[in-house]
Amino acid sequence: DSFEGQIISRRDLIQCSNTYAPVLSNDTGTRQIVMSWDSARLNDNSVIVIAEFYQEKKTGWHMKILNVVSLVDIRTKHRTPMRFPEQVEKFKELLLEYNGTDKGKLDYENIKQIICDAGAGGQMIGGVTDYMLANWNDASGIEHKGIIDTSHKANQSAIGLYPEALDIMTLVDPRAHRNEIFDAVEKMIKLGVVSFPDDPEGRDYLTHIDDDGTETVIHLTSEQLVASSQIEMMKTEIVTMCKYTTQGNVRYDFPADKRNKMHDDRVFAFGLLCWYL
Q1: What is the pTM of this model?
Q2: What is the pLDDT of residues 117-135, one digit of tens each?
Q3: What is the widest separation between alpha-carbon atoms in the chain?
């Protein structure tokens, strides 16, 4: 193994961090949202990363990280991911919150795309996605459309069965695209088109200093603090990921001493967003 080192440094991340609190819903009703989901059932974390996509005149599309949600069942001894039906229920809640459904938005009007890891381990295909095809009712009994990736071979028979399902999902084979996904992490962060919330560093607030020196204190709710801690864990995974080149073959992995101790689900889910961006 010839070692090339970490793809992103802490300094790179600090340059992309801004003073804003994690965003827990489509508070304005106009945010354009892209979500990624790296699902898992037993060994890994099941993680959803939520970002806002927006355009700048000179530099094109940008991505702002709003939240990272870990679908863990806190009742289990090893905090294993929730059962799939429970994961899907939580995902559906997030889908409505980030669409701005409470602001009268039509189904997934503000959801640009949902990018999912289609690997066998996460059972996204034949498992999670099958739960998402049919129309479903929310807690208030209001019906919502299902979602589908019509271009994926696993869904060819489902297209006719679920004609109302909206085609806003992209299923990505993690093995075929792993290198592209981590290459996108490096490129997008270094291009400066990704922003992260600042680390509150153990406090329950962030301090923003304007260009004129005015200080604004942003207080964080308990939910925002949970989101902050998940985002910080994602940042740690990002700066731990390394690039190895052997005889012209590139692969991405954690250093040997971290491989059995750390998961890469957050950085992978983040990578799916960078790849889409």
Answers
A1: 0.92
A2: 886 554 555 556 788 899 9
A3: 60
